[in-house]
Structures
1.
Amino acid sequence: MTARQWCGVLAMIAACLPGAVAGCGTGLPPWHPRPAPQAPGARRPGTYVVTLVPGTSAAALASIYSRYGLRSVTALGHDHYRMVLRQDPGPEQVQALAAGDRRIQAVQPDFIYRATPAPGIRHFGAD
Amino acid sequence: MCSSNTGKLLQIAAGMLLGIAVPAAQGAPLQAATGQYVPGEVLVRFHQSLTAAKRAAIVSAMGNAVRTDYRNSWVRISLPTGRSVRQAVADYRTDPDVAVAQPNYRYHAMAVPDDPYFGELWAFQNTGQTVSYSPLQGVYGQIYPTHNPGTAGDDMDIVPAWSHITDCSRVIVAVVDTGVNYNQQDLSGNMWNSAGVTYNGASLVHSGYNFIGNNNDPMDYNGHGTHVAGIIGAEGNNASGTTGVCWKASIMAVRVLDASGSGTTSSVVQGIDFAVANGAKVINLSLGANGPSDPLFSDAITNAENSGVVVVTAAGNNGVDNDSGNNATYPCDFSQPNLICVAALDQSYSLASFSDWGPTSVDVGAPGTNILSTYAGTNATAYDSNATPFTSGWTETETSASSSGWTPWTGSSPLIPPVNGAPVPALTDPSNWPSGVYASNTDDDAYQTVNLSGVNAAAFYAYLYANVTSDGSIALACSPTGGDPFAAASPDYLIAPTYTDTAPTAPSGASFIPVSADLSGCLTTGCTVGLRLATGPTQDYGAALFDLYIETLTLNTSTYNVLNGTSMATPEVSGLAAMLFAFNPLDTYSDVVNAIEQGGRPVASLAGMTTTGNAIDVMKSLAYLSPPTGLSATVH
């Protein structure tokens, strides 16, 4: 079986997986949409984007989150910082700590985005 | 006072109005007309029974003058200064002695570019051709079979527009994507001139910035961004390759997605901020994600709005209604007025099977199937688990004797159903996945060696079911020097250790995730790619990996590819936005958004599926005049 034949086969797999819009055996072409990613809100584990109150030093992050092992802090501009933790307590805990500290304006997961070519016959790589 | 471009726009608009208004009995509008006509003149054919003297008398009575009396009772008539051609034509049509009245249209050589692949570009000129370009590149390079060929005339109506404008280079268009191969033969002359611009202390010598590598080289190691850039602005009429919406353009390359086509909020937001700060008027975002709203991303689009920037984004390729349930896709579902979200149409202007839609979130449709454009290089397959199953070449280890470790699986499950009776190869832990649970307190590794030397980039794609509690984790890693990639003191993680469950959970659709990773740090002959299931005291149902595919990219300057997706429809709109800004530099972002959305062509497949029900139409958008707002009248 050639690679391109495999492509057709795998698209049928995609159409049959849970979450697919239509079921198997419908005779749909391999272009039928693959299942939607089953992890809405996919995020980079342990990585958060923090917005500090203007004038606040990034050192504040160490005092708040060092208990989880602060791997790195990168300035993104506009008082935004990408923070990577060695141990990920999860978004709820990270946000709970931020809510109790006036130096932090907002914190959110670093959500994953993908290029959006259609998956076509195999593979996702896109939404 | 009208600018020269405004004058042209009015000519186009009036010409189109007149052409549409001509009743069949008066003679249909001439197909070759460009919409432009000679001001101060009309052409009238009187009934044959009238003498030349009678014709002259009628013309004179209308306050006009006969300029030329042609054969068959046709008369070329001069109008007094300031007299509207449109009104004059209307007046003559009410005269019972007149058979036909029309403007004196101008004709141009049709502006079809000489690019050799122009015949494949159905989005620009749909003649009912079959798109059959080859060789196709990579897993995404595919011919979409439905409506190929499609319906002649179902296109963007751009060819007549090229008689008016082809040069958009005064408008910077930011391609916020996987980067752009700025050396590609059809793009190198149309990149943003970044001479003298610095960012983070670096001179921008390659027309943009790389927010994945944090350097000044936004080269594309995936192919997607280069394809997008070519749709917007591949150099036209240069006897080479394809053409973009704009023949001349100013493409800003902003790399925010890695070689696997993946990025995050932080990289994308940086890219948008960079584009706005450096003068982009249009930002193309052929990217997205299904999930909760992303406030930081939304703020970046609002910042672009405040700077008058149009942002164009893709609806998504899940074939679902973005407005329904948990289908919201961002940035498409953001609501800023400078944001245009685009669905994909096929060659008969049906909604493409993969395209998302949304009556309140998706705005317009544009061609998005079988789109031929520039590409970054050539792809090759370095590993394919369906061609070389997991029974061959994989090394697996486990630290607990009670663990089955990672095991080649060829079972049958609705989660990975057989295809045509043949099981799909997978690698699972435990071996009795999906019904069994993994062993406690073990590190189970499995890895495969792949030769990734001599290429510029590589990416890993697979499907993964994962059910791991929080006292354990699953991770992917690679090692350029070979061996177990997790043996290193600091493994080069492709996916950092993570867990999926708060309590043991049987595999289901909810635990199915696509995974992808950039292998550009592992371009050696002995690169190893592996995964680790690390477990604690709690047992869960483990993981299954299948459809693992590693693809390489070797850059060059002359490759083209056919891709499909709302990703490809999006730059058709971005190119149009650039064209509109270039055509009338005084336009605001809202003028451009209105011209694109309201100046589109109603399409049945989009009715009720988008906010406008329209496909983009370049000629109509060029002619679109926003209705005046804020006017008031006083009745005496």
2.
Amino acid sequence: MSEQTAKDTIVLVDDEEIVLTSLSSFLSLETNYEVLTFVSAKAALEHIKQKGCDLVISDYLMPEMDGITFLSKVKELVPEVPRIILTGYADKENAIKAINDVGLYQYIEKPWANEDILIIIRNGLERQLLMKKLDQKIDQINAAYAELQGLHKEIVKTFV
Amino acid sequence: MNDRAEEIRRLKDSEEKYRKMVELANDAIFGIDVDSGGILYANPKAEKMCGYSCDTLTGMKAWELHPPEEQESARKLFAEVVEEGSSYRRDMHFAREDGSRIIVDVSAVVTSCGEKKIIQRICRDVTERRQLEDELKQLNKDLEIRIEQRTRELNRKQMQLAQSEKMAALGNLVAGIAHEINTPLGALNSNNDVFIRLVARLKAALDELKGCDELRDNPELETIFENIEKLNDVSRTAADRIVNIVSSLRKFARLDRSEKDTVDIHEGLETTLTLAQHELKNRVEVIREYGDIPMIDCYPNQLNQAFLNLLVNASQAIEGQGKIWIRTLQKDNNVIVEIRDSGRGIPPENLSKVFDPGFTTKGSGVGTGLGLSIVHQIIQDHGGNIELESELNKGTTFRVILPINGGEKS
């Protein structure tokens, strides 16, 4: 997108290095996103708290904190950021349930297809951007409305 | 003189005592002439037991107390006892005056009465007791049969329970393994994709450098690229196959759907075939004759288990090269799945036994003898039926008939 000034930042969390390396290599090859990888959900939370991010992808089964808990904490910190969970078969049902409970944007099944991930990320980011724009527009409308109200009062005052 | 009168009086007393004993006895007592077999005397109890008056009885032969068909043997017995001077005790039938029959415990002994030899028979009516005993025996027999049936049923249930526990444990194991495999598999799969992209990039970059003479037409570089591309393709195919197997395992165990569901039988057959691949590979040709069948209500993991059993059995029935035909069709409200093999067939004497739990011809260590009994149970649980046709050295057909509505009764 032409109006994108800074690179979008994607946070990847998985307790397995191999997954992080594979995914980040692919993303850095095919996209301009800035990809940050974390084996620890806590460290990822700390980073998001400090610096924020544009999209989060997390594994489900992790020893320190499961992906659903992690993403619900992300929601508290940055509610507008799309959250995606990566899951194996065994916990698919739970993951789908959690999508509704925690308000996840998508879930991706392992083994994933790179092309799918690309589309999901792109759509997630676009959605986020559109939401942001929508918020801006709403703010503008609200401001214009307030101005109108003020004008209205002025006019009434002048004539009455 | 006094002594003699005393003796007579004592004799009279004694005779009176014995006469009373005989008359009041609760058993029928007969005295029988050893020479003629005629009844000499009978006590009141004997009258009552046989229904004849004492006068009639004393005009009868001993064997005439028995029903006609037993009189001949009774007569022989009588002759034997007389000849050997022996005694006997046994159950015999008496035919009463009114035609009814009773069972009598007869005890006979040869004794002397003065200088005359007689046979004394003491008889007791045991009809009721023997009937009760017979009833008791019958009840015991029934009970034994029922216990045997229940035991067999329990054994079968226990085996099934053990098997379904085993399957549940296996299901959990498969789920765990699928999950564990999917993470590294995801990485491998993704990397293969990245390698292919990288090679394409590298080639494009080199093309831009083709101005350099050293790079143009470098045979070494060409070989390297050829190999990388070829091997990347192999890696991708291999990874795809692992993805398929893991996905089949999961679908087979239906870990996502262990409850009743409406499913496509063809899909179940295909996942099952993937898992049976190692049994069939390069040896057995599978010919699919899939018809137009509707989805059916069933427990998919159980049905898949049944299909796997039938397919593995079919494959094991084939020595060397052979074929398996899988035919599906709809008939009325049923879906029919036929699995036919070109194997050695089942001997006629075994046809009725193949569904019995524990029956196996595969030898210990190969088969558990549970496979087909479990298939049978699973199909029955679905309200269906399984039929079997076999011809020696030609092959066997198992026909699974499943109601579309899942056999809902109520």
